[in-house]
Specification:
mainly beta, 9 strands, binds zinc ion, about 10% helix
Length: about 160
């Protein structure tokens, strides 16, 4: 996915830096997988940030059953994507298998960088072959979130028809 524009000033630059580089936030509970339209599937994990100014904070992992090797990971807060990682996504500006987008409060745009060391899967891998947990945990580190005490559940292997 290419960078996308969201509403500006959903979070201040200071709050965003504090969230991504300050005291570690903590994910809680169990990951819940939901199968949506067009056989897309997403798992959601609530995050406790310790900041009252960041609402509805959560980590999300998404793929679809037609091409499960395209994995999207998103760190949401205040109804914007604060940070995203695209595995096997395409970005015209950033070469490589994995890249990361980070929200820019001033204009609602995203800054994009390549990630050489992210635990990606190969294109055309099957759901059974893909280590979604490893990706989720690597993404959580990039978001400064501790997921050590969550109850991980593997995604279902097949969607509904
Ligand atoms: Zn992308």
């Amino acid at each position: 996915m290419a960078g996308r524009e969201q509403r500006a000033n959903a979070i201040t630059p200071v709050e965003l830096r504090h969230l991504l580089e300050g005291p570690v936030s903590r994910a809680t509970g169990m990951i819940v997988w939901t199968i949506g339209q067009r056989r897309g599937i997403e798992g959601i994990e609530p995050v406790v940030t310790g900041s009252v100014s960041i609402q509805d904070c959560r980590l999300r992992i998404q793929f679809n059953f037609q091409s499960p090797w395209h994995v999207s990971l998103t760190f949401h807060g205040n109804n914007v994507a604060l940070r995203r990682v695209c595995v096997n996504g395409h970005d015209r500006k950033v070469p490589g298998r994995v890249h990361m987008h980070t929200y820019v409060p001033a204009d609602g745009n995203e800054r994009t960088v390549g990630l050489a060391d992210f635990p990606a899967c190969l294109p055309h891998a099957t759901v059974e072959d893909i280590d979604f947990r490893k990706m989720f945990e690597a993404f959580a580190v990039l978001c400064n979130v501790d997921v050590g005490s969550i109850d991980w559940v593997d995604p279902p292997v097949e969607g509904v028809n």
